Amino acid sequence: MGNFISKKHCIFEKKVQVMESKISKMETDINNSKLRHYNNYNKIIFYYFIIELYLAAFLYEKLASSDTLSEKAMCFLYSLFASMIIYSLAKFYRLLFERLIKNNEIKLLKLYDGLDKLFEARKMETDYDKTKKLLEDYEFFKKNSNNRYQEEYQQQQPPQPPQTPQPPQPSQPNPGPKLEVENYLYRYPFCITWKI
């Protein structure tokens, strides 16, 4: 029986350790991905400005060397188109990583909920086992105290001579139930909370 209980306790500890390791791994993944996303986004913005400066210099050179208006317009459109592509890729990257981080945070919350449920189940199981053990101890104590009380009561009582029955007196209340309650409290002192 002891092996079963200790194995049961070890299984619970292993489950808790697995959940805690998953939670810590998920927290580090979230923090690392946030940091990596922030650094990469800053690099994208930095390179975006460098590319824009390069495109502006290229556009200026092309505008100065070309004679026709259509060539100048095409250079301007290519520059604008390249800027829009870079900007849209940066926004897409940001949305993608924010979505991934949000999904990981939701998974982390689910892991925390799973850990809480695991502890709640253990508390309910422990309370049941503890209550069952207390009831068994109470029954054992009750049997022992009843046997002991009966043995002591029989040893302490001297033989009584037969008495003639007396009629009950109407002016005094019947003290029978009160004595029974006092004897019960004497036998079971842990049940003092009962009031009659």
TrEMBL record:
<keyword id="KW-0472">Membrane</keyword>
<dbReference type="InterPro" id="IPR040115">
    <property type="entry name" value="Lnp"/>
</dbReference>
<keyword id="KW-1133">Transmembrane helix</keyword>
<dbReference type="GO" id="GO:0071782">
    <property type="term" value="C:endoplasmic reticulum tubular network"/>
</dbReference>
<feature type="transmembrane region" description="Helical">
    <location>
        <begin position="44"/>
        <end position="64"/>
    </location>
</feature>
<feature type="compositionally biased region" description="Pro residues">
    <location>
        <begin position="158"/>
        <end position="176"/>
    </location>
</feature>
<keyword id="KW-0812">Transmembrane</keyword>
<protein>
    <submittedName>
        <fullName>Uncharacterized protein</fullName>
    </submittedName>
</protein>
<dbReference type="GO" id="GO:0071786">
    <property type="term" value="P:endoplasmic reticulum tubular network organization"/>
</dbReference>
<feature type="region of interest" description="Disordered">
    <location>
        <begin position="150"/>
        <end position="178"/>
    </location>
</feature>
<feature type="transmembrane region" description="Helical">
    <location>
        <begin position="76"/>
        <end position="97"/>
    </location>
</feature>
